[in-house]
Amino acid sequence: GPSSTGRELEQAIAQLFAAEDDVLRQTTERARERGIPSIQVSPLQGKLLQVLAKACQARKILEIGALAGYSGIWLARSLPADGRLITLEIDEMHASVVRESFRLAQVYDRAEVRVGPALETLPGLEAEAPFDLIFIDADKEPYPQYLAWAIRLARPGSIIVADNCVLGGDGLGSVQESPSQFLTGARSYNQRASSDPALCSIALPISSGMTVSVVMDRTQES
Ligand code: SAM
């Protein structure tokens, strides 16, 4: 009812719109067994990523930060049969679990993980650009650099999503008065996303907050 807490409401919405199947449930279960922290997106966020991928008719998706492949499965499932997901992951152990997840989810034909620090892998992706959707969900300090790369690897109409950007409001404060490097990443990200005329953006209070941007066609401006 109207008195539902945010958490109950999120669960009720997820139950109706974003139910996990066995493959998704087993992905988080296997990750837990291997000692990987449960810091994947929520089902609601996974479904939001799918809706956004469909909205921009994504054929090529880039993810920064794969973990165990949970969000990667949501993303890969939004692709057409000839679509492609490239996900970047620094940790070789995580990457091997991601490969297993993609195999079990039967998206291995369209989804691949590339291992290394994202800032070293990203320049090599220019030949494979443009990406229609870019999902940023890795270490927080370089978020502004990841955004710059995302814009560079996008086309007009591409959608860029970054997770952990609102942080109960802490991610929205002043960059100059930021108390930590972690928050500086989110704050600078939101600063640019909210003010760069090359982007049309909104931050959503979903889990710890996702900032969603559409890349503008600068030649169409009046
Ligand atoms: N997107 C995943 C999901 O929802 O299922 C969750 C990603 S988790 C929050 C962040 C991941 O980014 C971790 O697996 C971590 O190892 C990886 N990571 C951290 N720093 C990185 C870097 N510099 N380059 C690439 N991946 C990095």
Automatic annotation (TrEMBL):
Record keywords, A-Z: Methyltransferase, S-adenosyl-L-methionine, Transferase
Any one GO molecular function term: O-methyltransferase activity
Keyword Methyltransferase carried by entry: yes
Keyword Transcription regulation listed: no
Biological processes, Gene Ontology terms: methylation
Identification of the protein by name: Transcription regulator PadR N-terminal domain-containing protein
Portion held of the full protein: 233 to 454 of 454
